[in-house]
Amino acid sequence: MTDLPRRHQRARGPEGVRHGRLPRRRGGVAALKLLAALVAVVVVSVGSVAAYAVWDVAHSIKTGVHLQALPGHSAIPQDIPNVSAIPGGVNLLLAGTDSRSDLGGVYNSADEQDASSGAGNNDVTMLLHIAQDHKSMVVVSFPRDLMVPIPDCPSPDGQGTIDGSSYAQFNTALSRGGLNCVVATVSKMTGLTIPFAAVINFNGVSAMSSAVGGVTVCLASPVTDDYTNPPLDLPAGENTIVGDVALSFLRSRHGVGDGSDLGRISNQQVFLSALARKVVSGGVLSNPVELYALAKAAVNNITPSETLTNPTTLVQIALALKDTGLDNMVFVQYPAVTDPDNPNRVVPQDSAADALDEALVNDQPVKLTGSTGRAAEDPTATASPAPDAGAGGEPSPVTPATPAAPATPAAPAPGATSAPTDSAGAPVELPSTITGQTAAQQTCTKGND
Question: How many helices (H) and strands (E) does the chain have?
């Protein structure tokens, strides 16, 4: 995708947003960082550290955003059931904002504030789905440049609604109507009810990577990017990245894959899988100091929905993942092809998107059959063809893939609202046009040569 100026829509809610013409800095934030923090709260809540840790974390959480029900959907529960006592599924959305407001430091400059302020755009959006039986997890990354219908959204001030659009860029949902609008848009796309959500800023990425002592990522070739702050200049091989360097790595577009936002998503999945392996297998879960630091770093840098403001809820969600296993943690990119009206934008690839949405709504485990994406490679895997590239570095329209026959549907999992059903059996094989990886795959980032 070329680096042309983005089309932005000004917020129609009470909080303005300004965007410059240079799309150089974009949010890079990962759903699993929050999950690591959730597990942290669980562990530090045992023993003499518990009272202070829970109190301090509770007082670090910002005022929650009230998620309003969409027409045709039941009201989102405010009294969230105890996931550990009443097992159930979870849908949690994380929106990474590119706003520089209130970040301080280098972001106080006029150029940075002109680039994005106010609510900002949801340049990174991930949906976490935990199955009702807790045996599988899917994290879906939604392309920033996806052109989709955005529904009417509740106004952030609670007064009235903000008009939707039949055709708009996905990452404008946050600046249009805040977190509720991002949730409404993803809910409309997938058919899922999403009771948990949060907005995360740039500082959260740096803080989380520092809290775990850095994340070691594999680079198949050098990664350089002068457009990030700080600039990237990482050699091939294993690199342990931390703080602002980790932030630059996750935000990098020019330095990885084909320079597109879709390449950046697969690069983020390389980081996510490495982070998951470190948290699950690297001793982080047995270190109260690191775990508490993760919890504090998370809550200091998110604006949560009201349903996430209780630390106990974070504990309950974390407990849902304690026995899932790395092989059953799947990261996917929402399938997209080149927009026929604009080679620098993408639209959902309908048949593949339908197969993914159906699996999520029916709470079924999934199996990847496609590649690891444009900026990632699995050195141990048999090569599989990637989708054809069209103009602007985006995928060309492809012959619709035939979705695999689904297993016997389990009860839908709109949130943590019903007893688990066994989703065991053969996973749903996703079409090969859907890219991604599991947390167990030790992939390497491909630099943009």
Answer: 10, 21
